[in-house]
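Lab notebook page, bench 4
Experiment: in silico fold of construct C2
Operator: M.H.
Input chain length: 384 residues
Purpose: comparison with the prior construct
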Amino acid sequence: MIDFASMEEAHALPLYAKRGIVLVRGENARVWDQGGRCYIDCVAGHGTANLGHCHPAVVEAVRQQAGRLISCSNTFYSDARALFLERLAGAAPPGLGRAFLCNSGAEAVEAALKLARFTTGRTRFVCARQAFHGRTLGALSATHNPLYRDGFGPLVEGFTFVPFNDLQAAEAAVTEETAGVLLEVVQGEGGVHVADGEVLTGVAALCRERGALLLIDEVQTGFCRTGRLFAFERFGLEPDLVCLAKSIAGGLPMGAVLCSSAIRAQPNKHGTTFGGNPLCCAAASASLGVMVETRLWEQAERKGERLMTRLGAIRGPRVRQVRGLGLMVGVELREKVRPYLDRLAAEGVLALPAGPNVLRLLPPLTIEEDDLGRVAEAVERVLG
């Protein structure tokens, strides 16, 4: 048997805490390793596989587009790009009918920060503590955790951090120099903390009052994950910029920024070589089409409620709290989470951390009910 793990270690920079599993195939919520063992995947590419692995509609769209045109400069129009932009605008809430297409969540955040500065002529941003917005220098500057920031200074100036869900602190931080307030509706990497709806609406009102833009990071929460197509829809928010990525293109690399009519843009102020390429646009059109046609957010809502109810009933000294929204679920422990990730893998379930002591579950929203039950049983065995 080929030792793919050693092969990868020999040539890749050691930037990831690897687990000793070589994955070679996936179908819906299941993946198989090199030895043929099957796992239920609650990592799902860090939330990129909302439609499951290798969804037939996405596979067929990629197959067809790969035979027609893969790359197309943004200096030319593209049929695949136009069709996806129209579909995305049609699915987005009113007022968010324009978009910039890129390749990742960090790129989407970078673009949103630049557009906010260019639109307002202001330079400062207010972000939340425990936030995670990406690893490029601008997105990293908006990210609070020193784990990601240390060693990369000086970062971009002008970022102020306030406690999550603290409207009074936001009121003190937003000034006439604030270009925008950047928030997640659910802090994923920060521990699966759900925003308070009254605080979100209060921050939105504060932005309107003081001339700042409201930027919402939906990189992990978007595309049905939290029981709505976009998580901010739960609270009636009207953001100026919405950052999207992860599951936008059925697992292919894509990001996007939805923009309100207030956002200024002109040639040469921003751009991308691969963003909006026909291959990813075809995949994204297929993916979004399935989500809307099947009302996938309803599955996420129903399955998430079932999973959190069952996990909330676990009795024992290890579990402090179960929280989340839709099928974005966090189990906060009273001890370090890493040993329990390994034990879950031994039970046939792959899961994520969210900070040092939170177990995070991000299964495909299309996960079969039986597989979801097996996930709950495995967590019960490991934590109970």
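Observations: The chain has two domains: 25-52+295-383, 56-294. The chain is about 35% helix and 20% strand.
Next step: discuss at group meeting.
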